[in-house]
Automatic annotation (TrEMBL):
One of its GO terms (molecular function) is nucleotide binding. Its EC number is 1.1.1.312. This is Dehydrogenase. Residues 130-239 form the GFO/IDH/MocA-like oxidoreductase domain. It comes from the Bacteria. The lineage of its organism: Bacteria, Bacillati, Actinomycetota, Actinomycetes, Kitasatosporales. The keyword Oxidoreductase applies. It comes from Streptomyces fradiae ATCC 10745 = DSM 40063. Keywords: Oxidoreductase. Residues 8-121 form the Gfo/Idh/MocA-like oxidoreductase N-terminal domain.
Length: 337
């Protein structure tokens, strides 16, 4: 930290996410972006004027309080361990690592040194999901019965090292556990590979959370339709979050009986009022950086911890195991740390 109290931050990786991290870091209050690591250089000028370095060691030599790890997933463990050994806090892009074992080693490395470390599960900072979580915590839905997510769109050409489960489904696994405050206890899944690449392109998974809530995830990157849908159905109705537009709506169960007999028999639970909430819509990545900065300063703990990121990797591994074996995979219902 500089004499003025400014945190010195570094960035590892200037790819499709790294360039956005650089933009936010360069303008983040109380933070100075002192260096960016990318062995490919910065031909596009994304480093915001910060020196571009070839190695993590060069960044550490500059002296940093924390670093953002936005290199390919397969390199997260190697880079994260170097940062931990140097006593540097880290915000690691999701998923935290490409294997459960790697994620565990990162958890141990940072926790054993008492370093602040988080995972960039950006959906936690989406205005619609933050509002949804607050409303669920306040009991506005009553008992929660089911969480359904759909995440579909065209293939992201930035991805080469993992399939749709680790790249995209990890978003839905994390947000489901986060908004409900529950953990996964079982998962059953099917995957499809159609693009000729070594990894899966589509996944359909159903599971159960520690309080009995049912979950369903549909994820693919083969659809021309771009969709980011989360619904939570419960005792008093259904919340629907669209994280593309950051809109949150609530469809309530009707308080008024339907007199039209045929319609009542067809619909079952009657439709009530629909409310779309007015939510301040700040950029999720900026919110994520503000929360992590505050955590490094000891002012907040509203981040996705490495241990929570590990849990998401464990569930993703269970999804792939289920798809490979055809069996339902049981997970222990350990509390989210």
């Amino acid at each position: 930290m500089t004499a003025t109290g400014t945190l010195r931050a570094g960035l590892v990786g200037l790819g499709s996410m790294g360039r956005h991290h650089a933009r936010v870091l360069a303008g983040l209050e109380g933070v100075q972006l002192v260096g960016v690591v990318d062995p490919m250089g910065d031909t596009n000028g994304w480093a915001q004027g910060a020196p571009v370095l070839a190695t993590v060691e060069e960044l550490l030599a500059l002296g940093v309080d924390y670093a953002v790890v936005a290199c390919p997933t397969a390199l997260h463990e190697e880079v994260g361990l170097k940062l931990a050994e140097a006593g540097v806090c880290a915000l690691v892009e999701k998923p935290v690592a490409d294997t459960v074992e790697g994620a565990r080693r990162l958890v141990e490395a940072f926790e054993s040194r008492g370093l602040v470390a988080g995972v960039g599960h950006i959906e936690r900072c989406n205005p619609a999901l933050r509002s949804l979580r607050t409303r669920l915590e306040a009991g506005e839905l009553g008992d929660v019965y089911q969480v359904v997510t759909r995440r579909q769109g065209p293939f992201p050409h930035r991805i080469a090292d993992v399939g749709v489960v680790k790249d995209l489904a990890t978003h839905d696994i994390d947000l489901t556990g986060w908004v409900t405050g529950q953990t996964y206890t079982s998962i059953a899944a099917h995957t499809v590979s159609k693009s000729g690449r070594p990894h899966e392109d589509m996944v359909s998974a159903v599971g159960k959370l520690s309080d009995g809530t049912m979950v369903s995830h549909l994820v693919n990157w083969l659809s021309p339709l771009k969709e980011r849908f989360t619904s939570v159905t419960g005792e008093r109705g259904c919340f629907v979050a669209d994280t593309l537009t950051a809109d949150l709506t609530f469809h309530s169960n009707a308080a008024v009986a339907t007199e039209w007999e045929a319609l009542r028999a067809f619909r079952g639970v009657a439709e009530g009022d629909m409310v779309r909430y007015a939510i301040p819509k700040r950029e999720p990545l900026l919110v994520e950086h503000e929360l992590f900065r505050d955590a490094v300063l000891g002012k907040s703990d509203d981040i996705c911890t490495l241990r929570q990121g590990l849990r998401t990797v464990e569930v993703a591994a269970a999804v792939l195991e289920s798809a490979a074996t055809g069996d339902t995979v049981r997970l222990d219902g350990a509390a989210r740390g």
